[in-house]
Amino acid sequence: MTWMKWLPWRFVVKTVARKHGFLDPIALLSRLHGFAQPSEVGEPIELLRAGVVFHARGLINSRVIQHNLDWVWPYWIERQFDPKDPSFIPRAFSITHINLSNRNWTAVGHPDCDELPIVDPRGLLTPFFDSWSLDGWLLAEDGRCLLPSRVKDSRQWQDVGEVISVNTESSMDGLELGSKAWVELESGVPVCKFRLRAKSQVAGSLVLALRPSNPEGVSFINRVSLSKDRDAWTVEGDRSVTFSAPAERHHVSDYRNGDVHIHLTDREDQTEGVCDVGMATAAALFSVKAGETREITASIPLSDTRARLPLADAWQTEREGHARLVCPEPHYQFLYDAAVASLILHSPDDVYPGPFTYKRFWFRDAAFIINALLCIGLTGRAKRALSRFPQRQTSRGYFRSQEGEWDANGEVLWILKRFFDLTGRRPEKHWHDPISRGARWITNKRLRKETEAPHAGLLPAGFSAEHLGPNDYYYWDDFWGIAGLNAAADMLAVDSPEDSRAFREDAVDFTKAVDRSLERCQTRLKRPGMPASPYRRLDAGAIGSLAAGYPTQLCAPDDPRLLDCAEFLLERCFVDGAFYQDMIHSGLNAYLTLHVAQVLLRAGDSRYLQLMDSVAELASPTGQWPEAIHPGTLGGCMGDGHHVWASAEWVLMVRNCFVREEGERLVLCGGIPERWLEQNETISFGPAPTGFGTVSVSVRPDAAGSHKVEWTAEWHSEEPPIDVKLPGYEPVVASPGTGSATLERP
């Protein structure tokens, strides 16, 4: 906002503000900026825009919800607005009312379908992005009504079989209600299905309810009409909901008359509703006989066009050839399978870090998610997503998803190298220019004019979309920059040796600059741990500096700076076994906890398993994690309620427990839990692509009570040195070409 530096403008703004009794905004902004390092990008317009939209809904929520608490609201509202619930949040000074305590939902969908319906913890289905929702109720003839969002206890699970579905069951005093949501193809068109099943000890009605709300709050409905055959709704004139049977009774209501739930028994039948403020509600009722089960299915077409993968067995087709886990621990098995399904759903073209709040693109999230796709053999999806990267590169070489992400170029170059390494290919000619320009951008962006400052030679101060704190010279960005330069040098070594040599030299110089800066930090802090930036003390933001160890492997597994940083985080920033990010997130983070676990796994520190177990316990009943988890209620408190980066990290953690690259060596079975070995069952993982080739690993018990590790591989070239490090056994360096290792206990 350089125009604000013009004196007359500053004077006018200050005068107008004071005249109307406001604080001087220029002085206030100046104070705020004083807490951060000077940066060319303060707050990216993309984040500001997203924040405005987010809080605009929260403002609407504040005008609607608290004045209409007799309505049936989504689960998060029923909990967050209940003064007796642990999720309750006082609202007196909250300008906007947003979901801060139960940001949990699960996506369902079909491979390569961009629409991702979501289901909340009580079965509320939101079929379209940020849309209205469908709910199921059970009304008994004696006036009792089973409302899942108000039931304290409910059972929910995800089926990851032939079709991905989310199932919810609720009950109350002789009333039982279940729902199932999934997506299937009908004539090549993806259709969301919502099946309700009700059983009651007394006669009653199964209610399919149309709701002007979703897991973020109010979502407007201005008009709804029932078809002549009474078997379908038309919502807003363009969306249809078809019932498997005609509605026997039907009611609608608007904002002035209150929720349709209030009028289920006191109104004549109606077929159309209009609400000028967008709070129309509707209910289709279907009779339930005492003691009998009644089932109704609603169908919602998600698109007018055929899906790219018009196969009835699409899920089976997607899973063929990907790395499969077979283990004796059902919960770990389920979480892995659910994470794989999550990765498939969220990679239709671009990769999304979430189906709702984060259904957008960031290079950072994409790098980690694509790495997971590659590491389990979903190479086609990874390649498709990577092919879209160059169109986001500016003429100066910046890979831009939003301004100010100084880590983006390094992450793009690193994941490109991972793709070529894991597939055993060399970059095609069309990649040479994007790679060169991307690396050159890193080289040109470094602060070379500074010679004595702690940030000399580093990347500029940035806003840190990883929520490490105010604008600063983050080592996270620098480590990714170095990794990107090294990756570019490797990828261009054959076809552009001069560029390769220049990028390698700059990577070395960049590393020296970071090392000098870290040495000054070590002197200042009196310990080797790496803070978030040269100007910070050790705090939760130091989690970003672990990037030097995972996933970039820029430093050795036993680097004192890396291990001391991890030790600090474990001692000061963990709550109940999980990393607590007290900046922005203010919650437990599954994916960041696993970053620490990966550092410990590389170092041979058995505590990695404790962190894995903690993350497993934090998963929702459907096998998902929100971005941040409330330490008290364990509900989602920040970000998307179905965080795909977390799913990616779980997949990568499991993969690295079986097979991981360590420099020029391959490490097998280094993280398999010893408790699995006690079950005397065969454990296996694969086929898993690695930088040396695709590997399948199995661990088999023998008659003597010991275990044998076996593997098969399709190497890209020569077989690498292989270390077998099965916990509970002496490490073994495998003999070349044997494909197995005989282990001995210490």
UniProtKB/TrEMBL annotation:
Gene3D superfamilies the record matches: 1.50.10.10
Cross-referenced SUPFAM superfamilies: Six-hairpin glycosidases
GO biological process: carbohydrate metabolic process
Top-level lineage group: Bacteria
InterPro entries, per the entry: 6-hairpin_glycosidase_sf (IPR008928), 6hp_glycosidase-like_sf (IPR012341)
Entry protein name: Uncharacterized protein
